[in-house]
Amino acid sequence: MFQVQGSIVALVTPMAADGGLDFGALERLIEFHLENGTDAIVAVGTTGESATLDHEEHCVVIRRVVEQVKGRCPVIAGTGANSTREALDLTRCAMQAGADACLLVTPYYNKPTQEGLFQHYKLIAETLPIPQILYNVPGRTACDMRPETVDRLADLPNIVGIKEASGSVERMRELVARCGDRLSVFSGDDGIGTEAMLNGAKGVISVTANVAPKTMHAMCAAALAGDRATAEELNSRLAALHKALFLESNPIPAKWAVARLGLIPPGIRLPLTPLSSQFHGDVEQAMRQAGVF
């Protein structure tokens, strides 16, 4: 059975100034994460600009990540869509590319009912045997998957986890209490990740890990071990970065920060634009506080 825990990076997708994919930078970025203790990689999730990659690009990036990782850590492919047919196609592509699991965001914009969400995920899970992680991020999708719906889906054997990004520790606790014996609960919010793990979550699917992977890994390891003092001390170094990486819409600040580290070029695709100059100092100061340079 697929299992993963710890610091799971929601990987940015490197792009040239014209928005073209930069596979050389992608290879360097993957090695950076493997060298710095990242426990698993999410390829082409929200932070990876999945909304602006076409189907072919989406599949190619997943395949290239799997090939570069070579089994050294789990690869989780972002394959969610607001069309169930498209989500099926992307999940099939990820499975064929050799991804270890898929991460499927709730269908955005069309605002399905809870029954619609259940049927959406049930169909994908029953059609394709790859392990699947649900992803609830109502602030982006205008769709909140309720714990009772997750509870129903947890009975499907290849639904193995949920990334919960509602920003609520109470929601995390409820999911652990309801479903923690059947699926892994992951925090999708860096700011509450420490507390989530101390309350039974298995890790963080993290934006901050793009910039400070070593400290994120150490913090997650301490929290999973129940060492509150060490986890909170490490998280205090990251706290400013958790906030700074959302001064503009994710992944705008994260891509600027990773480019500032010299790992990727500064490219990003419209309708997202490069980080406003007024925030450069704030992000850089948070990076210094986190000890990344």
What's this model, at a glance?
The chain has 293 residues and is of the alpha/beta class. It has 12 helices and 8 strands.
Describe the structure.
By secondary structure, the protein is α/β, with parallel strands linked by helices. The chain has a single domain (6-241), classed as TIM Barrel (Alpha-Beta Barrel), CATH 3.20.20. Helices cover 45% and strands 13% of the residues. It has 12 helices and 8 strands. The chain has an 8-stranded parallel beta barrel with strand order 1-2-3-4-5-6-7-8, surrounded by 4 helices. The longest helix is centred in the last third of the chain and has 17 residues, at 228-244. The termini are far apart. The model has no long low-confidence stretch (mean pLDDT 97).
Write the layout of secondary structure elements.
Elements: E1 6-10, H1 23-35, E2 40-43, H2 55-69, E3 75-78, H3 84-97, E4 101-105, H4 114-127, E5 132-136, H5 138-141, H6 147-153, E6 159-164, H7 169-179, E7 184-187, H8 193-198, E8 203-206, H9 213-224, H10 228-244, H11 252-260, H12 280-289
Parallel strand pairs: 1-2, 1-8, 2-3, 3-4, 4-5, 5-6, 6-7, 7-8
Question: What are the salient characteristics of this protein?
Answer:
single chain, 293 residues, alpha/beta, TIM Barrel, 8-stranded parallel beta barrel
This entry's quaternary arrangement is single chain
Low-pLDDT stretches are none
How would the global form be characterised? globular
> Regarding CATH, which class?
Alpha Beta
CATH H-tier superfamily: Aldolase class I
Helix content: 40-55%
User: Span between N and C termini?
Assistant: 39 Å
